[in-house]
Design goal:
The complex is a heterodimer of chains A (303) and B (260).
Chain A lengths: L6 E10 L2 E11 L4 E5 L6 H8 L7 E6 L2 E2 L4 H5 L2 E4 L11 H10 L6 H11 L14 H13 L5 E5 L7 H17 L3 E6 L2 H7 L2 E6 L2 E7 L11 E7 L2 H8 L3 E3 L2 E6 L3 H11 L4 E7 L3 H9 L6
Helix pairs in contact in A: 4-5
Chain B lengths: L3 H13 L2 H24 L7 H34 L2 H4 L6 H34 L15 H30 L2 H21 L33 H25 L5
Classes of the chains: A alpha/beta (303), B mainly alpha (260).
The complex binds adenosine-5'-triphosphate and magnesium ion (MG).
């Protein structure tokens, strides 16, 4: 990368008592990317994010945001950050708009126009003038995003932002994050265990497990592994007979699954059809990040 | 960075946009309006003066005033933790000290508002039923009624001020509103018992206890307080305790990790 990283974690360790929650994490987050932070429950994602925004102290190491240490120059460092840490809790007895006014007053140069712009962006519409008490989870999530982007931060940190959003909301969020990234040069750091989401959203991911960073990889390497064998599912009317015809594969309901290379798919289809079996659908299950992730973390129990 | 007054405005907004606050203010105004009426009904010989009525009223309603201020103080920090909004509040370009200060200022402003409301309503209601002049049983001869009443209310406010400081500290330390309210109110009601249990006249060290000095109204009549203390000594003891309470609040708020 030719640019300075926006965030630099240097040997970050968090200890609580004798437990080590995050251990020696070193990570550079380049600017202008949507950067995923992936890990199973209890891996230390939220803990790391809490340290990045100064909510918890750092036991060892340091975190630099836009060149300022969060330890030494908290106010300057955090001025570049907008964040949602875990659930977006708001003042329930205030309206959404009053909540935004509240956070706007805490930062420089946010006028009423900007607030309206943000409300439009997250699609809260007229409900913004209702009390937050009356909001659904997804609406609160949207309001959470709104308060995070209010001051046009250079770094946006979202801890499981799709939690509670409907498919439309997830899609809008994804598009919006892409837009922020591309047009405003915002760096977005999202944590999630919704792995398939990450694949659609992120340019790179860092994978954390048991407090340790185990991998950082780019997801935009073009269309890799075209020839690689992939799980392919055939939906048929007579699964038992299909199994016999194909002499292999596994059955789940009306779906027969086989590991096939791309070229083999039409052949298998032809064989099924010739045997008089009706094929209603063919689906390739690409080896997703999810599988890779499960492979890597070995499906370890939490903790 | 930014405007510190904005922080105080935020805290004010969080106090006055809640229905609860207006209920409290309403109750306070109502009680201060109704007590002089009751006094006027039991006052047989017309001996009660305007200032007597105000002080009598305040001697009841100041408890309410303290309780309401304690509730607001205890919720100020603990509320942010129980709502989870503390996470959004502390990730702004403001040091934790300034955020805590803005909260404390808003709490003190609320306690002042309550006190002013109390004084204003009590005086207004009393002036309808009682005359200003005449011999007063509460006020020494030759003393101005208004000046005495003012000093009386000031003593009450010092009491409230210390109780609120305790509630505010407990709120930052325990992050639990209910516990802080309970403990602070317990101290408010039990301090008389403590003060008589550990009487400075009997135990020399008891004159350094907070309880012995929270109620300064004794100095309105006499120059000597509990254990032969002077007003200056009492104020010094209060000041030391106050600084300790504030230092503890600040330290804990500054240092502690904010975890779910
Ligand atoms: N204050 C604390 N004291 C002790 N242990 C803690 C504390 N906070 C978190 N932990 C532990 O640290 C580990 C990491 O927690 P963290 O919340 O960072 O996980 P996460 O990756 O965000 O998980 P999830 O996907 O479930 O949100 C967990 O095992 C948790 O039990
Ligand atoms: Mg988490």
């Amino acid at each position: 990368m030719q640019h300075e990283p926006v965030v630099r974690l240097e040997g970050v360790t968090k200890k609580v008592g004798s437990r080590t929650l995050v251990e020696n994490v070193t990570l550079d987050i380049p600017p202008g990317q949507v950067f995923g932070f992936l890990g199973p429950n209890g891996a230390g994602k939220t803990t790391t994010i809490r340290m990045m925004v100064g909510l918890t102290s750092i036991s060892q190491g340091d975190i630099n945001i836009c060149g300022y240490s969060i330890k030494e120059h908290f106010e300057k460092a955090v001025a570049n950050v907008g964040a949602i840490v875990e659930n977006p809790e708001m003042y329930k007895f205030l309206t959404g708009y009053q909540n935004l006014r509240h956070f706007a007053r805490m930062m420089k140069g946010i006028d009423a126009k900007r607030i309206e712009e943000v409300v439009r962006l997250v699609g809260l519409g007229n409900r913004i003038h209702d009390k937050v008490r009356t909001y659904s989870l997804g609406m609160r999530q949207r309001l959470g995003v709104a308060q995070a982007i209010l001051h046009r931060p250079r770094l946006l940190i979202l801890d499981e932002p799709t939690n509670g959003l409907d498919p439309q909301g997830i899609r809008e969020l994804r598009d919006y994050l892409r837009h922020l990234c591309r047009d405003e040069g915002t760096t977005v750091f999202v944590s999630s265990h919704l792995l398939s989401e990450m694949e659609l959203m992120c340019d790179s991911v860092a994978i954390i497990q048991n407090g340790r960073l185990i991998d950082v990889r780019s997801l935009r390497n073009g269309n890799e592994s075209k020839a690689e064998a992939a799980e392919t599912g055939f939906t048929v009317d007579e699964p038992e007979r299909a199994l016999a015809v194909l002499e292999g594969g596994s059955r789940e309901g009306n779906v027969i699954t086989l590991k096939l290379a791309r070229d083999e798919i039409p052949e298998i289809n032809a064989r099924l059809v010739q045997a008089g079996i009706k094929v209603y659908g063919i689906q390739t299950v690409t080896r997703s990040l999810e599988d890779q992730f499960l492979e890597m973390t070995g499906g370890d129990p939490i903790g | 960075m930014g405007n510190f007054l904005g922080l105080v405005r935020n805290e004010n907004m969080k106090i006055y946009r809640r229905v609860r606050t207006w209920v409290m203010l309403g109750i306070l105004a109502f009680c201060n309006a109704i007590l002089p009426v009751l006094f006027s009904m039991v006052d047989s010989g017309g001996q009660t003066t305007l200032w007597d009525s105000v002080m009598l009223t305040a001697s009841f309603t100041f408890y309410l005033c303290t309780i309401f201020s304690v509730i607001v103080a205890a919720d100020s920090v603990a509320g942010e933790f129980s709502w989870g909004t503390i996470k959004l509040l502390l990730i702004r370009p403001w040091s934790r000290s300034k955020i805590l200060l803005s909260k404390y200022i808003a709490v003190i402003l609320f306690s002042l508002l309550c006190t002013l409301l109390l004084a204003a309503v009590a005086m207004l209601a009393s002036s309808i039923f009682f005359a200003g002049g005449g011999e007063s049983s509460l006020i020494g001869p030759g003393e101005s009624g208004s000046a005495f009443t003012f000093r009386y209310l000031l003593c009450d406010y010092v009491n409230l001020f210390m109780t609120v400081a305790i509630a505010f500290m407990l709120s930052t330390v325990f992050r639990a509103g209910g516990l802080s309210i309970g403990l602070a109110l317990f101290i408010m009601f039990a301090k008389g018992i403590f003060a008589s249990l550990f009487n400075p006249d009997r135990y020399g060290w008891a004159k350094y206890l907070l309880f012995s000095h929270m109620d300064l109204s004794g100095y309105l009549k006499a120059d000597e307080g509990p254990g032969g203390a002077t007003l200056g000594f009492s104020l010094a003891v209060l000041a030391v305790y106050y600084i300790v309470f504030m230092a503890v609040s600040w330290y804990v708020f500054h240092k502690r990790d904010v975890a779910a």
